[in-house]
């Protein structure tokens, strides 16, 4: 008797971390379906792509229904789709921009989870892995809305794991640090910029660009995702990469004042 391959669904898989995760899962023996708003790409790839917009309820329901029609089950959901804002003060983004970021980064996770959990619950098994950020537990300035969205993902993931364990489903959050992808170059600019923040925007952007230049690649995150997917007793959260591990260590063991001053020094703030 042939044991069927587990089926994985990875949102935001057209590039960067999502694509690396999808490829890693294929190599590990999963049947993988990636998603993007554009759906299938012209070039050949190791996994199928579905069209899915995580901000659209109907799109989410249609993609999940299509995958269930094709495979009959979903064993692993990776919520990766998201975007960032270029460094700017919190007050430089409009409410509309804040809503758009949270709609993708947090409510996109909620929509996908609500669509997939009933099917996992019916089977009595499943795993949901949400791609958060170390900034979801160690906030830094001038990316406040992104930090808020990842804080929401972190809290939601931990609460949800408690709810779903009794149904055989585990929920995990992965916390990468800076990762060398096109994420930063694709980040949106604040839409309500103020002149008084111009100098600090330039300075913080330079700091971020320097950090990105030496950042680890997306395979580092993909390796941690695979570890979490395979674990018999997964942890609630995993850091991914050296920088994230260092920040998590400081958060746990360093005095709060030392962590605070370390963040300000790293961001070159007065």
TrEMBL record:
One of its GO terms (molecular function) is oxidoreductase activity. InterPro entries: NAD(P)-bd_dom_sf, SDR_fam, SDR_oxidoreductase. It comes from the Bacteria. Keywords: Oxidoreductase. It holds the Pfam family adh_short. Belongs to the short-chain dehydrogenases/reductases (SDR) family. NCBIfam families: PRK06179.1. This is Oxidoreductase. The lineage of its organism: Bacteria, Pseudomonadati, Pseudomonadota, Gammaproteobacteria, Pseudomonadales.
């Amino acid at each position: 008797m042939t044991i069927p391959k587990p089926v994985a669904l990875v949102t935001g898989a057209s590039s960067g971390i999502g694509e690396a995760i999808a490829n890693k899962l294929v190599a590990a023996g999963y049947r993988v379906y990636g998603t993007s708003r554009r759906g299938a790409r012209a070039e050949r790839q190791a996994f199928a792509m579905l069209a899915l917009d995580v901000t659209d309820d109907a799109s989410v329901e249609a993609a999940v229904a299509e995958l269930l029609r094709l495979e009959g089950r979903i064993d692993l959901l990776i919520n990766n789709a998201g975007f960032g804002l270029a460094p700017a003060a919190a007050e430089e983004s409009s409410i509309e921009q804040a809503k758009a970021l949270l709609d993708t980064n947090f409510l996109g996770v909620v929509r996908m989870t609500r669509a997939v959990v009933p099917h996992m619950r019916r089977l009595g098994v499943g795993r949901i892995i949400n791609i958060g950020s170390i900034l979801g537990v160690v906030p830094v300035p001038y990316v406040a809305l992104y930090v808020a969205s990842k804080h929401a993902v972190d809290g939601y993931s931990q609460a949800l794991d408690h709810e779903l364990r009794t149904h055989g489903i585990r929920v995990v959050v992965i916390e990468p640090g800076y990762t060398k992808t096109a994420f930063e170059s694709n980040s949106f600019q604040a839409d309500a910029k103020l002149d008084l923040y111009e100098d600090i925007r330039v300075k913080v952007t330079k700091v971020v660009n320097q950090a990105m230049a030496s950042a680890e690649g997306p395979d580092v995150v993909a390796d941690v995702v695979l570890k979490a997917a395979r674990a018999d007793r997964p942890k609630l959260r995993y850091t991914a990469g050296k920088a994230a591990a260092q920040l998590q260590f400081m958060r746990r063991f360093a005095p709060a004042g030392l962590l605070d001053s370390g963040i300000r020094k790293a961001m070159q703030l007065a």
